[in-house]
């Protein structure tokens, strides 16, 4: 089974580029940028990756990314992730970045976008890995801050395929961003949002009906809402589920609780992704593998999950054919 998973062409649709920052890169970028870290070395930093919930992870995630300052830093980060994709036979990626978390440190939008884009372009040329870039708003910040970010992105509009919504879900409902998402839609962005990770199924309904997103990031809370399950299945609205993330952030207590088999049986377009692999203990193959072992997925199930990724991605039909 590990070979079957490793050899399978895969698509990744839920990946925060800042969540691929491995401790080794944190330390080398800190050195290059003259930043002093509060951890003695890489293993001390890695030892801090024990989380109780989403917020305890976000605290360390925002801390870690403070070493990202220059265009070259964003290039190196993205290139390192894409090298892993190449090694794991991931053929297409749709990646998030969190501009507000860097603007706070006076890093220019241009510097983030050009650094990430240069790596994406090189991976396309060198390895044939295709990609989309998604600008994600931080939902713990205000609507006004999201609007400022959308405005700052305007000169770089052509680099982005869509906008997303991430960070602390509790008490930050999708409806807080209804006007920003409407404005983004008018500018031609495609729309996705994290919903139903720690938050209730109600937030998934809001993401669909108020924000008008076409894909839900996580969405595991849908399992408790039969009418929502029926809607997701009927409209083939994709869920980008992240097994190791859900386990590490205690959304589930054991991998066997993840309702992937139920989603598949119900006809939901569920996909497998890595979210923040540097923090959660594994990239794409590790996510498929951990899930397979926990719920005894068959090769046919794994193939279905990978094909759901192709169905859910933003390539055109001809490009999708190449992936299958
Ligand atoms: N930002 C990075 N990873 C995230 C996650 N799993 N949920 C919400 N926001 C995030
Ligand atoms: Zn995420």
UniProtKB/TrEMBL annotation:
Keyword Manganese: no
Enzyme Commission no: 3.5.4.2
Record site feature (Important for catalytic activity), residues: 218
GO cellular component: cytosol
Cofactor binding note from Swiss-Prot or TrEMBL: Binds 1 zinc ion per subunit.
Adenosine deaminase domain mapped to chain residues: 9-324
UniProt: substrate binding residues: 276
The protein's required cofactors: Zn(2+)
Reactions catalysed according to its record: adenine + H2O + H(+) = hypoxanthine + NH4(+)
GO MF annotation, one: zinc ion binding
Ligand binding (Zn(2+)): 14, 16, 194, 275
Coiled coil segments of this chain: none
UniProt xrefs under PANTHER family: ADENINE DEAMINASE (PTHR43114:SF6)
Annotated function: Catalyzes the hydrolytic deamination of adenine to hypoxanthine. Plays an important role in the purine salvage pathway and in nitrogen catabolism.
Protein known as: Adenine deaminase
Species, as recorded: Oceanisphaera avium
Classification lineage: Bacteria, Pseudomonadati, Pseudomonadota, Gammaproteobacteria, Aeromonadales
